[in-house]
TrEMBL record:
Residue ranges of every copy of the ABC transporter substrate-binding protein PnrA-like domain listed in the record: 41-304
Species per Swiss-Prot/TrEMBL record: Phytohabitans kaempferiae
Official protein name in the record: BMP family ABC transporter substrate-binding protein
Statement: the UniProt record of this protein carries the keyword Signal: yes
Name of a matching Pfam family: Bmp
Highest taxon of source: Bacteria
Signal peptide bounds: 1-17
Keyword Signal: yes
CDD domains (UniProt xref): PBP1_BMP-like
Keywords from the named record: Signal
InterPro entries: ABC-Purine-Binding (IPR052910), Peripla_BP_I (IPR028082), PnrA-like (IPR003760)
Entries under PROSITE patterns matching the protein: PROKAR_LIPOPROTEIN
Length: 380
């Protein structure tokens, strides 16, 4: 991620009085010229983990600071380490009492608290990151996300070409649809250039538990895996363990090349700033209701305003591999998809018929592993 020049107006690490959690709150504002129409609006962002996790929360925090820079006459309130339970609702309500009129709830598990807060505060726009909500939603509520499985598929191509053992590894937290999408896309990308490649999975049942991550990486490496990727909020532990073992790394959420100077291949990074800023603009302009953002909004390679970028390549990636990635990217950007059928699951059942491009909702409802993934989905 590119560093952002932000002037901190006030920053504190105090416990929020409204809840018994370890969440911390701070305030920032931007340094650029004035932006019309904000009228002193305050914006709140909540994150499930720390803002410096080399991963998901760091990317979301940097996006919040891009908003502060774009709208210097408003205050941006942020709270870290906000659990995915009723505590999240209390933190959001606390921000609203301070004057927040826009709330970004940035974790998958913040959906239900965000819906609750939106229903109780019809004059506040609440935006929830990562879900699709079936049925009617409050007019002041919206969900949004990016089709990050697309760059994950591209990274799978790189992994499939780099592996010598044919064994790839994937450390993940929970078997939610977003995670399954990424694991499946990674395997499908690898298999598209290396049909013998298989992806071995280990779940940690935690978004950020370094001890469990270290054990997961050790388990994969002991099985002969020589490329490891992950879907964890904090990524440093897995990357360092992989680098120490002389294996290759595919990153996720943020640019962590500095942690793996020899084994880094590529990765997928979130760049939320432009999308966050566009959603804020729609809200302060008074046109949120009826806009794309109060629906189940998705952006990606096909829309042209995707909130992610592919990480730079590492030294081991060949020009031939880069060419394969560019060709696949072009296909996806037009009328393709990482999940272009036929897609077959582990049991041999065809889940996506040949020639079919599934829509976003279908992809985000995936509840299976594709053929080539080694491991079972834990029982819920």
């Amino acid at each position: 991620m590119k560093p952002l020049r932000i002037l901190a107006v006030a920053a504190s690490a105090v416990l929020l009085a409204a809840c018994a959690t370890n969440s911390t709150e701070s305030t920032s504002s931007g340094t650029g010229g004035s932006a019309p129409g904000t009228g002193g609006t305050k914006i709140g962002f909540i994150f499930v983990g720390p803002k410096d996790d080399y991963g998901y929360n760091q990317a979301a925090y940097e996006g919040s600071q891009a908003v502060a820079e774009a709208y210097p006459d408003l205050e941006v309130l942020t709270a870290e380490n906000v659990p995915e339970d009723d505590n999240a609702a209390r933190v959001m309500e606390g921000m609203i009492r301070k004057g927040a009129k826009i709330i970004f709830a940035t974790s998958y598990g913040h959906r239900d608290p965000a819906l609750k807060v939106a229903a109780a505060n019809p004059d506040v726009v609440v935006l929830q990151q990562g879900n699709i909500v079936d049925g009617a939603m409050p007019p002041n509520f919206g969900t949004y996300f990016g089709t990050v499985y697309e760059p994950v598929y591209l990274a799978g191509i790189v992994a499939g070409k780099a592996t010598r053992s044919g064994k790839l590894g994937y450390v993940y937290a929970f078997p939610i649809s977003q995670t399954l999408d990424n694991i499946n896309a990674f395997q499908l990308g690898a298999a598209s250039v290396n049909p013998a490649a298989k992806t071995y999975v280990v779940n940690t049942s935690n978004w950020c538990d370094p001890a469990k991550q270290a054990e997961a990486a050790k388990s994969l490496l002991s099985q002969g895996v020589d490329v490891i990727s992950q879907h964890q909020d904090c990524t440093a532990t897995v990357i360092r363990a992989t680098e120490a073992a002389g294996a290759y790394t595919v990153g996720y959420h943020a640019d962590a090349r500095s942690l793996a100077p020899k084994g880094w291949l590529t990765g997928s990074e979130w760049d939320w700033g432009p999308l966050y800023t566009a959603m804020v603009k729609t809200t302060v302009d008074g046109s949120f209701t009826g806009s794309p953002y109060n629906a189940n909004f998705r952006v990606g390679l096909k829309t042209g305003d995707n909130p992610f970028v592919q990480s730079p390549y590492g030294p081991a990636v060949t020009d031939d591999t880069k060419k394969l990635v560019e060709e696949a990217k072009a296909r996806i950007s037009t009328d393709g998809s990482p999940f272009l059928g036929p897609v077959v699951d582990q049991s041999g059942t065809v889940r996506v018929p040949a020639g079919t491009v599934p829509d976003y909702k279908t992809i985000e409802s995936i509840d299976y592993f594709v053929d080539g993934v080694v491991g079972k989905i834990p029982a819920s």
